[in-house]
Specification:
With 204 residues, the protein is mostly helical. It has nine helices and four strands.
């Protein structure tokens, strides 16, 4: 089904209906431009809510669209949220208090960054907190880029079984299992690892 066909089908299904549609975390205004024609103004109170982290994504037509900019957290609010996530109902450790200023600067008032950072720190040895916080503090980037960097760090600290594997990695794991069970024999001598398997020969 083409984009035009899909837009027409959405438009037809919403005809004479009252609806509330939420488009969450939109990164490209073109996505909205392609969809807008599907949402008819039937004069019955229907609404479309679009959320985005980027100001440029907000529709520029002020006559038909209202823009509401959410305020970022203050440094104190960011710190209170981090404390609530890390130590609900408990006193903070001196080690975390030493990092307060850096933590507040990293989060840049974004609740998502605060929550992610709290999750990262809670899963780590406290002796490693300073290294992680200082590593993020060295980035001279925008709040959005900082949020993405924190998300990437969160992903890196996931256990291996929770990370999405490339198809090559999955194939390599299966092949190693077959070799360990003697169902596949390496006929060409060499190192058996993820890098050299493609250069080895196998006998089934």
């Amino acid at each position: 089904m083409s984009e035009e066909d899909l837009a027409h089908q959405v438009k037809r299904s919403l005809l004479r209906k009252r609806y509330l549609i939420v488009l969450d975390d939109v990164w490209d205004i073109e996505a909205w431009n392609r969809l807008e024609a599907s949402f008819l103004d039937n004069g019955n109170g229907s609404r479309v809510i679009l959320t985005s982290r980027l100001h440029d994504v907000a529709p520029q037509d002020k006559l038909h669209h209202e823009t509401h900019s959410l305020r970022q957290l203050t440094p104190d609010q960011s710190w209170d949220l981090l404390k609530a996530k890390l130590y609900p109902g408990k006193d903070l450790t001196p080690k975390l208090c030493e990092l307060q200023q850096q933590v507040v600067e990293i989060c840049q008032g974004l609740p998502l960054t605060v929550v992610i950072l709290a999750g990262i720190l809670s899963s780590m040895d406290r002796r490693d907190w300073k290294e992680v916080v200082e590593g993020l503090s060295l980035r001279n980037v925008s709040s959005i880029e900082q949020c993405i960097a924190t998300l990437e760090l969160s992903y890196k600290h996931l256990s291996d079984n929770l990370k999405h594997k490339r198809s090559e990695d999955v194939a390599n794991d299966y092949l190693m299992q077959l070799i360990s069970r003697n169902l596949v024999i390496v006929s060409k001598p060499g190192s058996i690892d993820g890098q050299s398997l493609s250069h080895s020969r196998f006998v089934v």
